[in-house]
Amino acid sequence: MPVTKTAKRALRSSKRKQAINKAVISRLEIAVRKAKKSKLAKDINSAISQADRAAKKKTVHKNKAGRIKSSLSKLLSKQKPSKTKAVKKTVKQAKPKPSSKGKK
């Protein structure tokens, strides 16, 4: 048990932070399990978002969040290769501006 006043205060703070961190990690683990089981795009994106949030709060290390996101994005790419049509872009020609050097 803490003896000093500041140690008691630190213990209270530590317990609050522990509860918050536990909730964040639990949400992340549940989202990852759900995404891996269902393999739906919305579940995968939700789990990726949870990983980003956990890394932002420094509950999990950013590299761990990166690994989680990488494994989930592999599931997303295995799901179906999306067929995207190549859209031809039209480029507008800019009108030449009159030179101001010649006029005085």
UniProtKB/TrEMBL annotation:
<comment type="function">
    <text>Binds directly to 16S ribosomal RNA.</text>
</comment>
<keyword id="KW-0687">Ribonucleoprotein</keyword>
<dbReference type="InterPro" id="IPR002583">
    <property type="entry name" value="Ribosomal_bS20"/>
</dbReference>
<keyword id="KW-0689">Ribosomal protein</keyword>
<feature type="compositionally biased region" description="Basic residues">
    <location>
        <begin position="80"/>
        <end position="104"/>
    </location>
</feature>
<dbReference type="GO" id="GO:0006412">
    <property type="term" value="P:translation"/>
</dbReference>
<dbReference type="GO" id="GO:0019843">
    <property type="term" value="F:rRNA binding"/>
</dbReference>
<feature type="region of interest" description="Disordered">
    <location>
        <begin position="50"/>
        <end position="104"/>
    </location>
</feature>
<dbReference type="GO" id="GO:0005840">
    <property type="term" value="C:ribosome"/>
</dbReference>
<dbReference type="GO" id="GO:0003735">
    <property type="term" value="F:structural constituent of ribosome"/>
</dbReference>
<feature type="compositionally biased region" description="Low complexity">
    <location>
        <begin position="69"/>
        <end position="79"/>
    </location>
</feature>
<keyword id="KW-0694">RNA-binding</keyword>
<protein>
    <recommendedName>
        <fullName>Small ribosomal subunit protein bS20</fullName>
    </recommendedName>
</protein>
<dbReference type="Pfam" id="PF01649">
    <property type="entry name" value="Ribosomal_S20p"/>
</dbReference>
<comment type="similarity">
    <text>Belongs to the bacterial ribosomal protein bS20 family.</text>
</comment>
<dbReference type="InterPro" id="IPR036510">
    <property type="entry name" value="Ribosomal_bS20_sf"/>
</dbReference>
<feature type="compositionally biased region" description="Basic residues">
    <location>
        <begin position="55"/>
        <end position="67"/>
    </location>
</feature>
<keyword id="KW-0699">rRNA-binding</keyword>
<dbReference type="GO" id="GO:1990904">
    <property type="term" value="C:ribonucleoprotein complex"/>
</dbReference>
